Amino acid sequence: MYDENGRPYLDFFAGAGALNYGHNHPELKRALLAYLERDGVTHGLDMHTTAKRDLLAALREYVLAPRGLDYKVQFPGPTGTNAVEAALKLARKVTGRESIISFTHGFHGMTLGSLSVTGNAMKRGGAGIPLVHATPMPFDNYLDGQVPDFLWFERLLADSGSGLNAPAAVIVETVQGEGGINVARPEWLRSLAELCKRHDILLIVDDVQMGCGRTGPFFSFEVAGIEPDIVCLSKSIGGYGLPLALVLLRPELDVWSPGEHNGTFRGNNPAFVTAARALELFWTDDLLPAQTATKGEVVESALTAIASKHAELDIAVRGRGLAWGLAFADADVAAKVVTGAFDRGLLIETAGADGEVAKLMPALTIGHDELGEGLEILTDAVADAAH
Asked: Does 135 lie in the same domain as 264?
């Protein structure tokens, strides 16, 4: 990216995961311009259009069918929080229950329902009203392995005197992005899915930030071999950075009445066009996931070297695929690193409850030279912050 004076910046932020394929990818741009030039429908409410049809066909052919997944597709509105709100609303309608289980340090959006299942106190405080009908449980390794996985959760479910209302659903991120790049183990995710089945609880995976290849496979939950009841997608599903969100749901969960969950901008046709083209470009084979894994190893190696060199800063390295973080014991150091990186021409952000994690999410299509350059800048920024 370039500022108005022509100064270049490497973007390791990528629209918080909305630009997995980079800025202004030329193939996606050509598809968009061609659609606009031929006077394709731009605004169609949530009605059926050829652009929507083509996206649904591409999603089925390149993503769902190869993975043996049978989901219906709902267009809930143009943003990630719209997808989460629709998923929570649907889970409550299907089950007739109100309570939702979320996890410590989870982040699911900035509207009221999404905030109710978000952990961050500052963001929750912005609601201005009590956030109810949601109960947090410890995310993987939250208790440092001192308590067996789900012991507390399952005991509450089994005890009629626990005060926990029977949940409609559990909502989880397999890698918590805004929460600080907290990575759930595959075995933890499998145990969660099994618990949900035993207790007739719907499992919602929020793949808004970590989907579309960010962790390697198209869906971040593929590593665990689970099939959620509902999946929330947004950010990079649009391919080009245009607003788009999808909810994938098991067919038997489609109990919506016509018009029961509608919205003016559910049908972002230009985003349908770029989304379909992105699926055709990047998801017809395993090349992108393989490249993401290789680049992820490069990032992990560089971050591990940084942490080792600056042991006095007590840095933890976290991540999977091309979502990584340097977790500092002192949040002020993380802030200095991010500022120092920006001054050197690298865009990154902080994450975590106190902003203690320097978070890296470069485009999946980044070149190896650019990746190496960005990691060198980060290395210098950490060294400077350590003094």
From this structure: yes
Count structural domains, the chain. Answer: 2
Look up the pTM and report it: 0.97
Q: Is residue 14 part of a domain?
A: no
**Percent of the chain at pLDDT above 90?**
97
Distance CA 215, CA 174 (A): 10
Asked if the structure places residue 312 within a domain, the reply is: yes
> Within this chain, do residues 77 and 148 fall inside the same structural domain, yes or no?
yes
Q: What confidence tens digit (pLDDT) does each residue in 88-141 have?
A: 999 999 999 999 999 999 999 999 999 999 999 999 999 999 999 999 999 999
Same domain, 380 and 248: no
Do residue 231 and residue 339 come from a single domain? no
What Cα–Cα distance (Å) separates residue 175 from each residue in 153, 246, 318?
20, 19, 10
Whether residue 248 is found in the same domain as residue 365 = no
Domain ranges, residue 335: 286-385
